[in-house]
Amino acid sequence: MEWVWRFEDARGEPVGDPPTSEEFPSQADAESWLGEQWRSLLAAGVARVTLLHDGRAVYGPMSLDAP
């Protein structure tokens, strides 16, 4: 089972080629990675992310902007 992040800009357009992150073995691993990388993703033009599990959205889109 694969967990990946889908990256989008502020308009909801895909960011990246492909517009998904590396694969993670668990939801916790994917969320930990995002916690470490969100600033660099934001700097690269990613405005929001969606967590996918086997191609289905688990949650998101979730903004990377600070509240």
How many strands, which pairing sense, and closed or not: the largest β-sheet?
3 strands, antiparallel
Number of helices: 1
Helix-strand makeup class: alpha+beta
Strand content: 25-35%
Distance between the termini: 32 Å
- Stretches with pLDDT under 50, minimum 5 residues: none
How many separate structural domains?
A: 1
Widest beta sheet: strand line-up: 1-2-3
Give, in order, the helices and strands: EHEE
The helix fraction, in percent, is: 25-40%
Instruction: Round the mean pLDDT to the nearest integer and report it.
Output: 92
Quaternary status of these chains? Answer: single chain
Shape: globular
Rg computed from alpha carbons, rounded to a whole number of angstroms: 11 Å
**Could you give the count of β-strands?**
3
What does this structure look like?
- It contains 1 helix and 3 strands.
- The chain has one helix spanning 27-43, and strands at residues 3-8, 48-53, 56-63.
- The chain has one domain.
- The protein has a 3-stranded antiparallel β-sheet, covered by helices on one side.
- It is an alpha+beta fold.
Q: Mind sketching the topology for me?
A:
Elements (H helix, E strand, L loop, with lengths): L2 E6 L18 H17 L4 E6 L2 E8 L4
Antiparallel strand pairs: 1-2, 2-3
Describe what is shown at a glance.
By secondary structure, the protein is of the alpha+beta class. Helices cover 25% and strands 30% of the residues. Strand 2 and strand 3 form a beta hairpin.
